[in-house]
Amino acid sequence: MSYFTEENATATVNGRMGPDTDPRLAEVMACLVKHLHAFAKECQLTQAEWEYGIGFLTRTGQICSGERQEFILLSDTLGMSMLVDAINNRRPKGATENTVFGPFHVDDAPIRAMGDNISLDGKGESCLFEGRVLDLDGNPVAGATVDVWSDNADGFYDVQQPGIQPKWNNRGRFITGPDGRYSFRGIRPVSYPIPDDGPVGQMLGHLGRHPYRPAHMHYLVTAPGMQKLVTHTFVGGDEYLTSDAVFGVKDTLVAPYERVEGGETIWRSPFDFVLVPA
Prior knowledge:
The chain has helices at about 10-15, 25-40, 45-60, 70-75, 80-90, 200-205; strands at about 125-135, 145-150, 170-175, 180-185, 190-195, 210-215, 215-220, 230-235, 255, 260, 265-270, 275. By secondary structure, the protein is of the alpha/beta class.
């Protein structure tokens, strides 16, 4: 019999798994235990620090609800969400890159006609978003669904302000035709803070980090025979591009925002999406 010691801790814990454990679960848990023990040894974790960590995780769970998931926020701010996203969405050169999904998507947004205005509250600087959905060879993708959503000019999504913002404000779905083109009118998004009134916000404060995300438009692009694309386009020049609280910015996703003179909108933001075969 092998009793638990500092030297054999990892082998002892992982050795307790039964022979009928699912192979993938056994692999993941063995790796987790190995790195968790290595972390404690490397930083020489004190008893008080361990207890504080348990308390932090407890408070993180206690603030979760049907409308708020503080553990996802914790994952986002530690870069874990983006790392898992990157591992699972490696794409060839030329394809549009993925980024975090975010907590504010709503299924079954209205299907709108090309060129429609998704800004229903009349706030913000108007912007025309347009471009094409293409395959890796540059061919247009017909029948692609371009699902879009963004905050309003005050930095809030409609689901954060029910009864204040109109339902489906700054949301919509657009279906491409044979030319693969999409276009809609919305607003130039603004930067906003992630919820920072809970344990994760306190953690950021202790680390000297701000809670802001740079301004962005969300896109979920799907098409038959193609991999799903979850991404943003970011407003070029935003002050938080290099310090996004959830690490979602990629160089290829920074979009142009061109001032329009004498047009229907103040701004224009062209961007093409390149999909990969499923």
